[in-house]
Amino acid sequence: MLLFSIVGQQAFAQKKDKEKKIKSVTEAEADYKPIDPLAPARASFFTSIVPGLGQIQNKSYWKVPLVYAGMGIPAYFWADNQRQYTRYRSEYKKRLQGIHDKEDPTFGGLDNERLLEAQKFYRRNRDLSVVITVGFYVLSIIDANVDAHLTQFNVNEKLTIRPVFDVNNNYLQQNQMQLQYAVNIQYKF
Questions:
Q1: Which domain of life is it from (predicted)?
Q2: Which residue pairs from 73-81 have beta carbons closer than 8 angstroms and sit at least 24 positions apart in sequence?
Q3: Is 182 helix (H, G, I), strand (E, B) or coil?
Q4: I need a labelling partner for 48 at 20 to 30 A (CA). Which of 17, 60, 111, 155 fits?
Q5: Which of 163, 159, 82 is CA-nearest to residue 121?
């Protein structure tokens, strides 16, 4: 009875392996898409026109909020720094005309040097915000291009690199104090 149950399980396992091979071949044929050489250029173009559109074309929907956050947050800080720069600039211009309100809660206790330093600070941060916004814009274009290239990359079971870790038992029996490990990398084309 035990013999029949072992043989029956082995035969059943072999049958499943054959079914898996047949199924994997049909799935591979179904997943095959012809290479579109213009897809990366198209994705880059779409993203350069409307940020995030190339990511949508590549079906990387989760990247769209990152693109808009990466461009929107520095744009917000640009607007805030521009507003602060304008406030300190207009106060400095008033002081050059001789108008100085010492009761003003924001500017009353500041001298002209502090107003100039504040202008430099907010101008520098405003310019940095522009650079960061443009950087995220360019990064989104590059990301759409690279993602379009990689979606066409052939990844299947034939193109694999698998590390295999092994302990050498013969060496272990001879030398009880030391373990010998081997790393074997197998690749198929």
A1: Bacteria
A2: 74/129, 74/130, 74/132, 74/133, 74/136, 75/129, 75/133, 77/125, 77/129, 78/126, 78/129, 78/130, 78/133, 81/122, 81/123, 81/125, 81/126, 81/129
A3: strand
A4: 155
A5: 82
End-to-end Cα spacing for the chain: 44
The residue ranges of DSSP E strands in the chain, in sequence order, are: 161-167, 181-187
Rounded Cα distance between 19 and 66, Å, is 42
Nearest CA to 100 out of 171, 133, 108, 164 is that of 108
> What SS3 state is found at 38?
coil
Q: What is the pLDDT of residues 100-150, one digit of tens each?
A: 888 888 888 888 999 999 999 999 999 999 999 999 999 999 999 999 998
CB atoms within 10 A of CB 163: 8
Q: Are 53 and 60 in contact (CB under 8 A)?
A: no
Global pTM value: 0.64
Q: Which residues contact 185 (CB under 8 A, 6 or more apart)?
A: 161, 162, 163, 164
Secondary structure (3-state) at 21: helix
For 42, left (φ over 0), alpha (ψ -120 to 50), or beta? alpha
